[in-house]
Predict the structure of Galactose-3-O-sulfotransferase 3.
Amino acid sequence: MGLRWLWRHRVSALLAVLVIFLLLTLLATRSLQNNRTHGLRPTADRRNQRKAAEKHTPIPHQPAKHTPTARAERQRAHPPVVFLKTHRTGGSTVQNILFRLGERESSTFAFPYRTYQFNYPDRFRVAFVDELPEGSSQFDLLCSHMRLDLPQVRKVMPQNTVFITLLRDPIKTFESVFRYHTSTVPAFFSAHRAAASEGKPALKVFLDSPETFWDPKEPGNGLAKNPMSFDMGLNNQKWNGSWPEDLALLEEAFHLVMIAEHFDESLVLLGALLGLEHEDLAYLRLNARAGNSVTELDENIRAKVRSWNVLDTLLYDFFVQVFWEKAAQYGLERLKAEAAQLRDSTENIRRKCVSRAAVPPAELEDLLRPRQTESVTIVGYEVRGNLSLQDQGFCVRMMLPELQYHSHLYFKQYGRDMRAAPAD
């Protein structure tokens, strides 16, 4: 009875929704709702006062060589966290917040055994995680790319771990995934080659007949259809009978599913979960594309994106409703006021730190240059000069791209460079 019974009796309604895809997506999402309330889970106590001076040190052009320090006896200021970093949703920005938090608190990161991702696109496995460093009793933060497998993740992290993730409008997500991963997802690359011969936009060529390019048996095609569902460990290829119950299990497991279109409000709720202040949550949007790397979509293309990614639409709409339930419990007026305060605090920090934004990669030094792909240009930030040593360290960390920050933290934790991926 209870939750499983309620979900089982909504399968027929959802199947009907899937037949008519677009018209009843919202109705389908409502039918998935199980009428349970979802409060924010108990949080770590907010720190009584911030440290008199944050002991940031500037990161040099090469990561500073630190030896691992004992962590077992320290007092943790926040609960352990798993952040499921979904592709092209704004996850690099949230990851940077967690990287800064973890570095300041000397947290122990669960890092991939090799490179920057947990053997993606395979489902997460305990074996993909590097060893617990000497002097640590547990992992405190896991926030590198993976394809979720909840039971396996729970074997790595403590029982009181807070699970969070981030979702974005499926149309925007798919457009960004397609452009960013054109050369690495086989289905996208095939469409790109066909488009070049036909003189048409690659995304239009793909969406006109996606089944022509998409081979579901090809492991590298996970992001080619319903990419957010794929990252969250759901069946992203087609509807099946387990989908509603799988979705219910995700809802039960995740303390907060952030929504990119309500980013500041999401961060306020995140702060309530983890006991963070506005300065902790201040951010710069990272891994952002240059304007000429974004494809403008007309209504016809948008409709085709929705149709091809209908499961992502259901997933997103469902968790948008869950998000606003949590927001209502927090207090909508309170949330609105705190989001405005966060924006003001963030803007003040940006003015202090950033001399130029949306800087082309050729004009950035190596430390602050984001990873580029063959199909898009990723822009970055230039740090303001004449900062104190402490402010420089804080500001550089805010704009540090994922790969550079990951490498720095890995070396700081283990005293060695990351292992390379095995040769093919």
